[in-house]
Amino acid sequence: MEYLDLTPYKYFSFPLPMLTVGWLGAGHGAQDSGAPPMTAADLRTLRAASRRRGMITLGWHSCDFCPRVEDWLEGSRSGNGEYHYYGRDGNTYAAPVMIMHYVEVHAYRLPLQVRQALTTPGELPWDGRAERLAEVLLAPSADMEWRAEAAIDLAHWHDPRALAALRQAAYDEELISIAGHDVGISIGMLLSFDFASGLRTEDLPLVVREGITEALRHPAQDEHPAAGLW
Ligand SMILES: [Zn+2]
């Protein structure tokens, strides 16, 4: 699927409006945005922001620029799922997992607007996007795929309200049956913050605790985070 950068995302249904970034294809090539080449720091920032995939079962992408090979050999030239970047500029950017490949192999240049959104210092402030995701996560009547995606994306907010929503979600049996592992990973990603001190996890469902264990195995300060770790 190919979209011009910074156009409204419409590949799949998602509870928040998003802008596309890095959806390259044969029609528009690497989409020269006029931005300068990516520096090593830009690359580190993007890689750090691209640790956790969402929308995993929904779409498979492969590189239009590399020669076609057998599916099992595709490796980094194809991928399943998306990264969501929650900018401090209030925008949410959706990229295919292939974005790192496009940067590293095809000299794709992330638009400056997105680089700036990713590097603005400070924590992401709790905002309307966070409110919406927390509301979707906890709404039994909401679309179950939305709820599962909300469980993944809420961990972008290092905020006690995100943790409280995830902890409450951990006891929703229907949600946990499909997204328990992701709920656990998100809780695990928030456990190192002061607001999480004293949080008891022993009474959480097993699948959630397994997710927590997995998150703790790959802390955010890991020097060599694999892109698309989860
Ligand atoms: Zn390629």
Structure description:
This protein has 230 residues and is mainly alpha-helical. The chain folds into two domains: 19-119, no CATH class; 128-217, no CATH class. It has eight helices and five strands, in the order βαββββααααααα. The chain has helices spanning 40-49, 99-106, 112-119, 128-138, 144-153, 160-169, 173-190, 206-217; strands spanning 19-20, 60-62, 78-80, 82-86, 92-96. A three-stranded mixed sheet has the order 1-5-4. Strands 2-3 form a two-stranded antiparallel ribbon. The longest helix has 18 residues, at 173-190.
Summarize the structure.
The chain is mainly alpha-helical and 230 residues long.
